[in-house]
Each structure stands twice: as C-alpha cells, then as structure tokens.
Amino acid sequence: MNTTDGFDLGPVLAWLTANEERVARQLSWITQLADDYSNVVGMENVQIRPSEITKVLSLFQGPAQERSVLRNIVGKPPTWFAVGTTSDRPIPTEDRLKAMCPTAIVPGYTDIVSWTPEKKVSDIWLYRIPEVPDRIATFMLVHALIHEYSHTILNPLWFCGKEPYVIDVPGCTEYTGEAFMMMFAHEAAKHDPISHYAAAYRPFPDDPSDKQFIRNVGEELCESVAAYFMGFIYCNDPVRCWAPFAGRPIVKLLVEHFLRGVHKTD
C-alpha cells in the first residue's frame, strides 16, 4: 500500500456498504433520543441529524469535554484530496476533476484559524459526502465527528505555548502533552496503522520537534479514538476491522488515558 492510498476512501465506502447492517447495529446508539445540537453552521451540508451529533459528542465524558476547544460544527460542500496530496501537504479541492480519484473524499477537518493565545477555539468542518446512500454517509460522518472532536482535545494538549500542558489520569499517572504523544507514538509504531486512513501518516518521525510528528501521531490517535468508540474501523486486516485493539492492549490503555485525563492547571 502506498501511503497516499489512505486518502482514497473508496475501500472504506465499499466495506461499509458490504457490512451495512452490522455497522448499523454497532452504531444503533445514535438513533436514541437526544436533544438537538445547536452550534451548527451550514446544516444543509451536514448528513447527520443534530440529535445524532449530540449522541456522538456525549461519548466523550467530563474530562475530555472540558479539555475540548470546540466552538462550532460547520457544514461544508463536497471536497476531495487533490492530485499532489501527501501526508505533509494535504491539498483540498471542491473541483472533482482535480481530485486524486473520485473517492478521495475529505469527510472532516478541524480548523484552528480562529486559535489565538487568548482564545483557543477550533471549528469542526463536516463535508457533504457525495453520491453515496444517506445511511453510508451518516456512518462516515459519525467516524469523522469522533475523529475531529478528538483533535479539539488534542490541539490544546500539544499547541500549549510556553507552559507544559499536563493531564492527570485519576488513580493512575500524569503526563505532559509531549510525553504522552511520544509514549503513544512509541506504542502505536509497534503495530500496523489502526486504520486505512492512518496508514497515510506512517512512519512517525522520531523527533517530536519535527512538525510532521504531531500530524502523523495525531491522526493515528484520533483514528484510535474513533475505533475505541465505534468498536470497528476499516483497515487492511479483515479480522481486526471488528477488533481494532486485538494484540495492542497498551495502545487501548493510552487511548483511555487520553480520554480520562484531567487538565492539571496548578
């Protein structure tokens, strides 16, 4: 597999379609009653109901929600990865003719343009998934939303300025943001990428000061959180698609630490 193959979501769409009923059962919790999520801009482009957004975000419990810097969810028109995209230089385009291929679809993105030292906020962009059945699009966006919300927790942990960002895992240990990401990278690198998409971001740089380090390791972590909550994720191993953490208990434990950690401010 070439690393850029991970940007082509064609195999993911085909797998979701072939396993549609099983995936629907696995994600049946999104159909439970919930209040509509209100901080959405451009809802006409979002193929997931406001109540389903609420259900997805409720997966993240107190400490993770408190560390998130999410401001708004923004619906965007269909967008693709353009020809020339690499892991260190993703190139988005709304022109399908310029896409790497018709299924090199961008499902989500976390925007940090609004980020300032005084007001650390991020918007999540959810893109319309073109030319797929509504239910498959919803499956894709559940995954994308979990992934992108994880970025809104990760961003302040890493881009914290001069003062180290410390998370305290109750009854366990505490980490600085850099120490946590280095440990996660060390453990994740012992295994194949957690998902088809994460494969686009291997290998990890050894030096955390390399700007590609946080991009590559961050994508692996956010995909791992998606796998943790969904209980499945498409990858190159048909068995592990349904058991994402088989043989990687420490990676799973670190995901749980990432989600449970309380930001230590004193």
Describe the structure.
About 35% of the residues lie in helices and about 15% in strands. The chain is α/β, with parallel strands linked by helices and about 270 residues long. Helix 5 packs across helix 7. The protein has one domain (about 5-265). The N and C termini lie far apart (about 45 Å). It has helices spanning about 10-20, 20-25, 50-55, 60-65, 135-160, 175-190, 210-230, 250-260, and strands spanning about 40, 70-75, 80, 90-95, 110, 120-125, 165-170, 175, 260-265.
Tag the structure with descriptive keywords.
single chain; about 270 residues; alpha/beta; 3-stranded antiparallel sheet; globular
Characterize this entry briefly:
With 266 residues, the protein is α/β, with parallel strands linked by helices.
| Major sheet characteristics | 4 strands, mixed
**Would you count the extended β strands for me?**
9
Structural class: alpha/beta
Number of helices: 8
Q: What percentage of amino acids are in beta strands?
A: 5-15%
Question: Topology of this protein?
Answer:
Blueprint: H1 10-18, H2 20-26, E1 40-41, H3 50-57, H4 62-67, E2 70-76, E3 80-81, E4 92-93, E5 108-111, E6 122-127, H5 134-158, E7 166-169, E8 173-176, H6 177-188, H7 211-230, H8 249-260, E9 262-264
Parallel strand pairs: 1-2, 2-6
Antiparallel strand pairs: 3-4, 5-6, 7-8, 7-9
